[in-house]
Amino acid sequence: MKVVVSTxxxxxxxxxxxxxxxxxxxxxxxxQLPVDPKTGEIVPGSIxxxxxxxxxxxxxxxxxxxxxxxxxxxxxxxxxxMDDFTEMNSIYAEVFGKDGYPARSTVEVSRLPxxxxxxxxxxxxxxxxxxxx
Length: 133
Fold this sequence. Notes:
alpha+beta, 23% helix, globular, CATH 3.30.1330.40, 133 residues
């Protein structure tokens, strides 16, 4: 069974997709941009601020889908500029470090929606008591 996950605590989808989908014991979280859910705008600042916001949005969708950051098994990070890798990585390590790092791919892309510097998607295990699967 497939269950669509949605929360107002993360930015709304800007296209025909869901914030997340739970199926087969997993939660698939769509790429999270560094958008402030209250304003709908990209947060100002450097790659560090944008990475932090993308990860905060990711956490909110995970929570809405009955998962957590510690349950993430795989991420994909899209960077507008690979020169931002080290600074992005420092924030990423703060968020994932205490629970063990998930598998990850990081790729440079020519452009992201809303001209964001970063976008992060994830796959997580659902909590065992979840009724979403």
